[in-house]
Automatic annotation (TrEMBL):
<dbReference type="InterPro" id="IPR014729">
    <property type="entry name" value="Rossmann-like_a/b/a_fold"/>
</dbReference>
<feature type="domain" description="Electron transfer flavoprotein alpha/beta-subunit N-terminal">
    <location>
        <begin position="23"/>
        <end position="211"/>
    </location>
</feature>
<protein>
    <recommendedName>
        <fullName>Electron transfer flavoprotein subunit beta</fullName>
    </recommendedName>
</protein>
<keyword id="KW-0249">Electron transport</keyword>
<comment type="similarity">
    <text>Belongs to the ETF beta-subunit/FixA family.</text>
</comment>
<dbReference type="Pfam" id="PF01012">
    <property type="entry name" value="ETF"/>
</dbReference>
<dbReference type="InterPro" id="IPR000049">
    <property type="entry name" value="ET-Flavoprotein_bsu_CS"/>
</dbReference>
<dbReference type="InterPro" id="IPR014730">
    <property type="entry name" value="ETF_a/b_N"/>
</dbReference>
<dbReference type="InterPro" id="IPR033948">
    <property type="entry name" value="ETF_beta_N"/>
</dbReference>
<dbReference type="InterPro" id="IPR012255">
    <property type="entry name" value="ETF_b"/>
</dbReference>
<keyword id="KW-0813">Transport</keyword>
Amino acid sequence: MKILVPVKRVIDYNVKPRVKADGSGVDLANVKMSMNPFDEIAVEEAIRIKEAGKAEEVIAVSIGPAKAQETLRTALAMGADRAILVETDDEVEPLGVAKILKAIAEEEEPGLVILGKQAIDDDSNQTGQMLAALMNRPQGTFANTVEIEGDSVTVKREIDGGLETVKLTMPAIVTTDLRLNEPRYASLPNIMKAKKKPLDTKNPADFGVDIAPRLKTTNVSEPPVRQAGEKVEDVDALVAKLKALGVA
């Protein structure tokens, strides 16, 4: 069985994003970029499944600029077997990403597609669900636990009320949540080996996918600065203050 793992190059989670002066978007100049944390979890889970002898190959795929090769090399250093970069300098919306992944999945025929539930740059949380709908495959989103048994996969998924368990017939789509696992660090020997692993470069036109944007960003701005708190002497003063603010 093959496992397909989409990964995205995003601003590193330790970096505070800066808005462009004209408000047209986020400034990416000279900003540290890394793999989306949810996708790291997806790569780790795919590698663990392979190490357990339940998969033969892990394929990492990314859609983005040429520099996304660095992200794919990270996935290869973690343990993925090969990678595919769909190179484009245009911003690709979740539906476009899902269509490209559908085309790749039809070529590779993976038994499982594991991807992060969302990317930390846009927080869309759409691609996995859209891919499942386009391919008419069962989906297990927000996975807390993934267990493969024969031709099915059991997913414990995080919901508002606790955990829900679903059993999916493969091929299936799984999106990962934060508590699924702790991603490994790539060792230096594996980083060196990753440089020799195959990485194919394609473009959206190879799959016949139109990535023209359907949405337009009108303005991006910093969140308002949080006002300083105020101490009160007792409960009566607190109630009076809340009433004065119109919240009680």
